[in-house]
């Protein structure tokens, strides 16, 4: 389980060893008092990130056995992908699971 500090924005992600075209992200936020908004971002160098077009809302769940999925309209290959939290509750953010689905660059 990963958690941010209370009331702050956050980012959490993954660096792939080779560029990947991610098409779907699965995640599981936790805690009924946790909520906020986030963006999905990608980068080739880990410094300059692009935003995928949508902002997403999340609400934590009391039970941690239900996953949410986001389909991403992406045809490019990046080494870095992350969730950038733009707002969060006074309790911060609690994340139990984060998975990226896609294909490696040939």
Any chance you could write out the topology, listing elements then pairs?
Blueprint: E1 2-3, E2 10-29, E3 35-43, E4 49-59, E5 68-71, E6 78-88, E7 94-104
Antiparallel strand pairs: 1-7, 2-5, 2-6, 2-7, 3-4, 3-6
Spans where pLDDT lies below 50 across 5 or more residues: none
Helical stretch tally: 0
DSSP helix fraction: under 10%
Q: Could you give a short account of the major beta sheet?
A: 7 strands, antiparallel
Oligomer classification: single chain
User: Which sequence of SSEs, written as H and E, runs from N to C?
Assistant: EEEEEEE
Tell me the β content: over 45%
Overall form: globular
Rounded to an integer, what's the Rg over CA atoms? 14 Å
**What do the pLDDT scores average to?**
79
Calculate the terminal CA-CA distance, rounded to whole Å. Answer: 33 Å
Secondary-structure-derived class: mainly beta
Number of strands: 7
């Amino acid at each position: 389980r990963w958690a941010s500090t209370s009331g702050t924005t956050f980012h959490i992600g993954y660096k792939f060893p080779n560029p990947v075209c991610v098409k779907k992200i699965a995640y599981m936020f936790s805690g009924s008092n946790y909520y906020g908004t986030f963006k999905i971002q990608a980068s080739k160098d880990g410094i300059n990130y692009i935003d995928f077009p949508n902002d997403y809302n999340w609400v934590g769940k009391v039970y941690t056995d239900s996953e949410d999925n986001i389909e991403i309209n992406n045809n490019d290959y990046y080494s870095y992908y992350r969730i950038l939290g733009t707002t969060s509750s006074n309790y911060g953010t609690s994340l139990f699971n984060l998975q990226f689905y896609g294909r490696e660059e040939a």
